[in-house]
Design a protein that fits this description.
Layout: H1 2-20, H2 54-87, H3 92-107, H4 110-121, E1 131-134, E2 137-140, E3 143-146, E4 148-149, H5 155-183, H6 189-208, E5 214-215, E6 218-220, E7 223-225, E8 228-230, H7 232-258, H8 262-270, H9 275-305, H10 317-328, H11 331-360
Antiparallel strand pairs: 1-2, 2-3, 3-8, 4-5, 6-7
């Protein structure tokens, strides 16, 4: 019955759109994706221009969303883990400080936190009076400028070698784990993986003749030119997402650690293991089985909450979609593309976390 209702509603909406759009002089289609964008995208790391097709602007927006989400997930996990350990500490001051952190960041709306961090960037000096904590590193109200490597075509060989080394290291770790389970003997997989990840890119750099030209930012006119730039919008979004979500992540991780049976702690202490070894070898591997499922929801929430960055002008997917809609008038198609991208990001995140959860799940034999 529910399926019939959903199908009827979908057909009703489609028929309504097909009937009313011609009256407004509009049409439905995706032919506009090949037209020029006709606007510039700030914080553009893919080199898009106003002459590039519209579909490329959507790619830039999706890349910016993915970039800020991955950075937020990484920092949120690390910060949540540290806060969780602080809450479990026997030090009263450290534990109360962590408790205050969790209760504060979780109960202040994310949008307000984002605006707060962005407003702090306005307190930084103008480019002419930039704060320079390190050589050729400048903090201004327009962003953080730093020396950057000038990319050359031969650098792609180095990037390819790094990707191959990471994949080979993953395979080596898998084979080493299987060998240990079957024979009880361990391979030096950690050192071998490190040698692969460091050695192969260096070898590729040496053989390809890739250059190492470093371009430092220089003040020209009213702003810096050259080098790399981290925009205030990006910093504000990453900090706000990481801090806000770390409060929820900390409680999730703390509950997973407390979920490990007391007997496991006592058995580890009876063997004379240090607290660090107990956490690393006994508690954390078991707590992952409790932590991973709810952390999946935290990561999905962080990715979707990145859409609030449109308020401070960060060119993520929502802002790019809004700009394209105003230029082309294709609101339905643009909204459909945006929702499809967020759906794909959420499904990919869920698929990866579910795969990881199956790998660490306890299997009775």
């Amino acid at each position: 019955m529910l399926l019939v209702l959903v199908v009827w509603l979908a057909l009703f909406l489609i028929g309504n759109v097909q009937e009313n759009l011609p009256r407004s002089g509009l049409s439905v289609g995706f032919d506009f994706l090949g037209e020029p964008t006709r606007f510039e995208i700030g914080a553009n790391y893919l080199g898009a221009t106003a002459r590039d097709p519209v579909w490329f602007s959507f790619l830039v927006g999706a890349f910016n969303t993915l970039r800020v989400s991955l950075m937020g997930i990484l920092i949120c996990t690390l910060l949540g883990f540290l806060v969780a350990l602080a809450r479990l500490s026997n030090n009263w001051l450290l534990s109360r400080t962590a408790f205050f952190w969790v209760e504060t960041v979780r109960n202040i709306p994310l949008l307000l936190q984002m605006l707060f961090w962005y407003s702090l960037s306005t307190l930084l000096p103008l480019p002419g009076d930039a704060w320079q904590p390190l050589a050729d590193v400048f903090f201004t109200n327009r962003g953080i400028y730093y020396p950057a490597l000038v990319l050359q075509p031969t650098h792609w060989w180095v990037i390819g070698a790094l990707v191959f080394a990471i994949a080979a290291s993953g395979l080596l770790l898998y084979l080493g784990r299987r060998h240990r389970d079957e024979t009880g003997q361990s391979w030096p997989t950690g050192w071998l993986s490190l040698a692969l990840i460091l050695g192969l890119p260096i070898l590729a750099w040496a053989l390809s003749g890739a250059g190492t030209e470093i371009q430092a930012p220089a003040l020209k006119g009213f702003n810096f030119r050259g080098g790399g730039l981290v925009t205030p919008e990006f910093v504000a979004v990453v900090i706000a997402l990481s801090v806000y979500q770390s409060g929820f992540a900390a409680e999730t991780i703390r509950s997973g650690i407390l979920g490990v049976k007391k007997g496991q702690w006592e058995a580890a202490r009876s063997l004379g293991l240090s607290t660090r070894v107990i956490y690393a070898k006994v508690v954390l591997p078991q707590s992952l089985r409790i932590v991973v499922p709810p952390m999946t929801s935290q990561y999905l929430s962080l990715t979707k909450n990145s859409s609030l960055a449109v308020v401070i002008g960060y060119p993520e997917l929502v802002r790019v979609t809004t700009a394209v809609t105003s230029e082309t008038g294709r609101a339905i198609e643009c909204m459909g593309i945006m929702m499809s991208v967020y759906l794909c990001l959420s499904l990919l995140t869920s698929a990866f976390m579910n795969w990881y959860n199956r790998r660490i799940a306890f299997v009775e034999k």
